[in-house]
Amino acid sequence: FLPQVDSANAGRVLASDAAVFLKKSGLTDLVLGKIWDLADTDGKGILNKQEFFVALRLVACAQNGLDVSLNSLNLPVPPPRFTDTSSPLLLSGTASSDLPWAVKLEDKVKYDAIFDSLNPVNGLLSGDKVKPVLLNSKLPVDILGRVWELSDIDRDGMLDRDEFAVAMFLVYCALEKEPVPMSLPAALVPPSKRKPLSVPGAMPLIPSSASTKESHQSLPPVGILGAKTPLTQ
């Protein structure tokens, strides 16, 4: 990875170069900022090779649902994933189109029934209609905001049937005390949302919309939830 961001071969990475590269991870700016703060130990805005390695490890931790902290550095995680097919680490693994969807068929039937009961318009549910269902889970508002951000895969502020199933899947995982990942795992991306990859057999990539999105364009319910008082259906 280092040659991609250290074009001058100086053995260090500037904040501006690192920011462009790290955004390809599909993680939110908030998470990337935390990763940079942990890696840039002396606060100079420059990473040496060791610090850059720490940043990559933290990206991998975040992509696999682990805490972004120095305590996670020694945990076993797969290599970080970036939407740059020139990287050799992206040329192994199974194509995302071949991965079975993590949402089981019997669960999908249940989620579809809830979806239909919320009166979708043109096959879409607005944030206002999804909000009561999310709040009904009694999960913390910041977790629900992340659930929305991950499930609104095309960033249109609405959830279709498949995106709603992803949201429900993540809610039930959180209720089982499983961590909600910082970025959507390839197996959770609905088959209808998977983009064909230009490199045969490439590692599953996070949809490019996740990395190009500006934070003000997304409409997570956390912004419209307001008070933390859960609503009941």
TrEMBL record:
Residues 27-62, 139-174 form the EF-hand domain. Residues 208-233 are annotated as: Disordered. Keywords: Calcium, Metal-binding. InterPro entries: EF-hand-dom_pair, EF_Hand_1_Ca_BS, EF_hand_dom, EH_dom. It holds the Pfam family EH. One of its GO terms (cellular component) is clathrin coat of coated pit. GO terms for molecular function: cadherin binding; calcium ion binding. Signal peptide: none annotated. Residues 1-78, 107-195 form the EH domain. One of its GO terms (biological process) is endosomal transport. This is EPS15 factor. It comes from Picathartes gymnocephalus. The lineage of its organism: Eukaryota, Metazoa, Chordata, Craniata, Vertebrata. The gene is Eps15.
